[in-house]
Amino acid sequence: MFKKILLATDGSAPSERATDIAASLALRYHAEVLVLHALTRIPDSLGEPNYSRTLSHMLEHARSLVANVESRLRELGIAYVDTDVIEGGAADVILDVVHTRNPDLLVIGARGLSQWKGLMLGSVSMAVTHRAPCPVMVVK
Question: Of 21, 28, 78, 89, most Cβ neighbours within 10 A?
Answer without folding.
Answer: 78
